[in-house]
TrEMBL record:
This is 60S ribosomal protein L18a-like protein. Keywords: Membrane, Transmembrane, Transmembrane helix. The chain crosses the membrane at residues 37-68, 80-105. The gene is LOC100824901. The keyword Transmembrane helix applies. The keyword Membrane applies. It comes from Brachypodium distachyon (Purple false brome).
Amino acid sequence: MRGGNSDDFCRCQVCLGKYTLLGDEENPRLAMFERSLPFFGCGIGWCCFLLGFLCPLIWYIAALLYCCKYYNRDPRERPGLAASAVLATIFTAATIVALSVLLIIDIL
């Protein structure tokens, strides 16, 4: 098969012309997402989300990546980083409430 236009079709007997080429010369950014995500295909965001249950500090690192728009490098990372940022916020609120309650009980 020659050329990289999206109008080219595979001419083999297996495909029978059903599939188009992924590579596009006009938009090279499409080829960037052909590679798999790191951490066994889960991506950095979801890996941080899961590891954050063992060490909540990791959620803050993922939240920092989310705020710095790390997902512009690969948009597939955005959901995992957003989930980690939400959990970092919830963990912070829960910690503040727990410490406030402990401080009030200690004063009484």
